[in-house]
Amino acid sequence: MTAVELDPDVIAWRDAFMLPPDGPRLEVLQADGAEYLQNVEKGIDALLVDAFDKTGFAPSLANREFFEAAFAKLSGNGVLVINLAGEKESYAGLIGEAMHVFDDQVIVISVPDDGNHVLYAFKEHYFDPRWRWLHSFAKELRANYGLDFPAFVQKMERSSKLGLARREAFRRR
Length: 173
Prior knowledge:
The protein is α/β, with parallel strands linked by helices. The protein has 2 domains: 32-127, Rossmann fold (3-Layer(aba) Sandwich); 129-173. Mean pLDDT is 83; it is low at 164-173. Helix content is 43%, strand content 23%.
């Protein structure tokens, strides 16, 4: 896993957040995420983005070029995950860009109790999760970690099905 952080002060706080030291399974780099993405090799399975500055979502990541670069660098069944915070109106255009680049293979779900949303953009054109297996696995995760993974999977499935229904209705017009 490679983590890329622009602000060296954030990296300096890694011990306070109990982030393990760099090793064979984790590397933390101080760099611009958009520039890093341009230079990294293809084949990323999951690209997690939580990129905010003082004014909102970082400008270098809030554009079509970033989404096109992410799409190009993801593996065939890769997924882009973006934390969206703030007013919905401030990131509506960003969701539109993701939907355009990822051919509508996008799910956006809300995060309980904090007002954030999480965007999932799937490279695989006919992404069809194994929902029954995911529900079962989510129960195991809840038992092991005490987090409500079943509710999360249920919300993802509902968002996915609603999105598919909306896209099909739109295509019929």
